[in-house]
Design goal:
12% strand, carbonyl reductase (NADPH) activity, 6 helices, L-xylulose reductase (NADPH) activity, Rossmann fold, NADP, four-stranded parallel beta sheet
């Protein structure tokens, strides 16, 4: 499906008709980077709509289907190390990812009785198209890489493998947790 997840009606129609579901990965995000004093209403609204609102809404649609079918399930929300550490020009991004971490904990608490597990993965910069756009400046990236004990940004497979673990039965007792995929950034 290809749609704007900020459009709740289109999302409801498309995702609601696509089931049944047992697994969900919420990975859509925007990173509209602006200094705190220059944050625009448009950037804030778009970030909230995509980084938080879309996760809430898609998860509601999928979880309702899982509950109606009586099947256990797993949801993984892709958050960020930025939910735990302030980054310059990331006021809105850091805030939406922190909110996503808490939303995931509430979801885990409320969906657990229905045998639906909810967790987050919290990667460092990942070398996706968006990661390359925001971190291609060597002066900017050097400061971040120097704070990562493993000395590099994450590759897509690093995050995918963590998500696969959280979706699998290998993590059957894990819910409400955040798996840091940050090369040690948060311990430095």
């Amino acid at each position: 499906l290809c749609l704007d997840l900020a459009d709740w009606d289109a999302t409801e129609a498309a995702v609601g008709a696509a089931g049944p579901f047992e697994l969900l990965v919420n990975n859509a995000a925007v990173a509209l980077l602006q200094p705190f004093l220059e944050v625009t209403r448009a950037a804030l609204e778009r970030s909230l709509d995509v980084n938080l609102g879309a996760v809430l809404h898609v998860s509601q649609i999928v979880a309702r289907q899982m509950i109606a079918q009586g099947v256990p399930g797993a949801i993984v929300n892709v958050s960020s190390q930025a939910s735990q550490r302030a980054l310059r020009d990331h006021a809105v991004y850091c805030s939406t990812k922190s909110a996503l971490d808490m939303l995931s904990k509430v979801m885990a608490m409320e969906l657990g009785p229905h045998k639906i597990r909810v967790n987050t993965v919290n990667p460092t910069v990942v070398m996706t198209d968006m990661g390359r756009i925001n971190w291609s400046d060597p002066q900017k990236s050097a400061a971040m890489i120097n704070r990562i004990p493993l000395g590099k940004f994450a590759e897509v497979d690093d995050v995918v493998n963590s998500i696969l673990f959280l979706l699998s039965d290998k993590s059957a007792m894990t819910t409400g947790s955040s798996l840091m995929v940050d090369g040690g950034f948060l311990v430095s």
